[in-house]
Amino acid sequence: MSILIKQATVVNEGKQIVADVLLRDNRIEKIAPQINVAENVREIDAQGLYLLPGVIDDQVHFREPGLTHKANIHSEARAAVAGGVTSFMEMPNTNPPTLSQELLEEKYAIAAQSSVANYSFFMGVSNDNVEEVLKTNKKKNEVAGIKIFMGSSTGNMLVDNYVALNKIFAGAEMLIATHCEDERVVAANKLKYPNADNASSHPLIRNVAACFESSFSAIQLAKQNDTRLHILHISTAKELQLFSNMMPLGEKRITNEVCVHHLHFTADDYARLGNQIKCNPAIKAPENKTALWEALLDDRLDIIATDHAPHTWEEKQLAYTQAPAGLPLVQHSLLLMMHYVQQGKISIEKVVEKMAHAPTVCFQMKERGYIREGYFADLVLVDLKKEYTITKENILYRCGWSPMEGMTLPASITHTFVNGNVVYENGIVIESNKGMRLAFERG
C-alpha cells in the first residue's frame, strides 16, 4: 500500500521544511508542499511531527549465531526499529566467529528471514584467515566491510600479527573497520593494577594510551597502503589529534565513529552503574566526553553509532574481572540524542547528519540515508513534545535491561518506515515487513 505522510517537518541535508511525502513501491516517490492522490493510499497526519531519515547504525552486535541467550537478529532488529534505526551493520564476533565466506552468508540468510530492519554484516579477521578475508573483495558492493579487532574484546578475535595486518591493509579493496586498543598496553596495566576489583578500574586498565597507540598504528598502516580505514568508537581526547575536518567527508580516506555511551556517560558513572557500563573501549574521565562533543560538532568525528552489545543481567552481575564488556543501546540512541537537542547541545539537523547522512557517505551506501525522491523510504517520525520514559516494560532487547532505565527522554518515536513499509507504530512492531540486504556503490 502507498503511504502519504501529511505536513511533516522534514529534516534533511541541513534544512527543515514542512511537506507531504508520498511513499510507493519501497521508495520516496514525491516530496512537495502538498500532495493530493486520487487513488487509495494510507494517510498519516504528521502535523507537528518531525520526519527524519532512518538511523543507520554502523556498529552493532546482535549475537547470532551462538550467543542467542543474550540476543539474536530478530529481537535486536525489533528493538532497532522501535528506536528509529532502519539499517544496521553487524559485527563478526559471534560463535563461531564470522571468519569464512560461508559463515558470512549464513548470517545474511538469517537476517533475510528474521530482520525487520535493513542489514549488512562485516567479514571478520583472525591471524590466519587472510586469504579468506580477501575473497570479500568480490563482494565489495554487497558487504559492509572488513572488521579487525586490533585489541581483544568479546569473542577473542585479537589480530596482533603484523604480517597478517599488513596483508589485509594492502589487499583490501573495501573499507576496513577497526577496534583499536593496544593489547600490550592493556596487559601492562593489568599487572600495574593487580587488585582491580570493580568497574571504576576499567578506564585505568583500558586507558587512553591503549586507545591512542592502537589508533595511531592503524592509521599508519592505512596511510602506507592507501587503505580506506574507519576507526570505531573513539573514546579519548588524545585520539582526536589523529583526525581532520579539513576536507569533505566523502574525500576522507580515514574516518571514525563516536558512540552514544561515550557522549553520555563518564567514569564518574561507574560508582552508580558499575558493570552495566563496562565496555571496550572504556568510558573514561569527563574531560574526554567534553572533547568528544567538541570534535563531533566541528566534524573531526564523523558518525554517531551505538556499538550495541547486549549481555544478560546475570552476566553483568559477575565480579568485575569476569563480567563481559558491552551495553545495549540501539533502541534508545536517537531519543538520547533528542535529549541533547533539547538541551541545546546539538541541532536536530546535526543529529540527522551524523546518524543518517554520514554513514551513507562513509560506507558508500546505495540510495539510502537521505529524504530524496527515488531513494528507499527509510524514515522515522519523531514527536518532540511527547516524553518517553525507559522502563522494563518497553525495553525490547532480549537481555531485558538498559543502563538508562528510568531516564525520561523528551521525545517519542511514533512511526518507523523501512523500504516504505510501516515496521513500528505507536509502540507496536509490525513483523510482517522485512528489511533488505544493504547495497553499496564502490568502484
Structure description:
By secondary structure, this protein is an alpha/beta fold. It folds into 2 domains: 83 residues, Urease, subunit C, domain 1, CATH 2.30.40; 309 residues, Metal-dependent hydrolases (TIM Barrel), CATH 3.20.20. It has 13 helices and 19 strands. The strands form 3 sheets. Strands 1, 2, 3, 4, 5, 14, 17, 18 and 19 form a 9-stranded mixed beta sheet that branches. The longest helix is centred in the middle third of the chain and has 18 residues. It is globular. The mean pLDDT is 96.
Q: What proportion strand?
A: 15-25%
Name of the CATH homologous superfamily of the largest domain: Metal-dependent hydrolases
Shape: globular
The count of helical stretches stands at 13
Question: The CATH topology of the largest domain, please?
Answer: TIM Barrel
What would you say the CATH architecture of the largest domain is? Alpha-Beta Barrel
Give the C-alpha Rg: 21 Å
The mean pLDDT is 96
Report the end-to-end length measured between terminal Cα atoms. Answer: 35 Å
SS class: alpha/beta
User: Which blocks of ≥5 consecutive residues have pLDDT under 50?
Assistant: none
Number of strands: 19
Helix content: 25-40%
Largest sheet: 9 strands, mixed
What's this, in brief?
The protein has helices at residues 73-82, 101-114, 130-134, 162-171, 183-192, 202-205, 208-225, 260-264, 270-273, 286-297, 313-316, 333-342, 348-363; strands spanning 3-12, 15-24, 27-32, 42-45, 50-53, 55-60, 85-90, 118-124, 145-150, 176-180, 229-231, 254-259, 303-305, 379-383, 388-389, 408-409, 412-418, 421-425, 428-429.
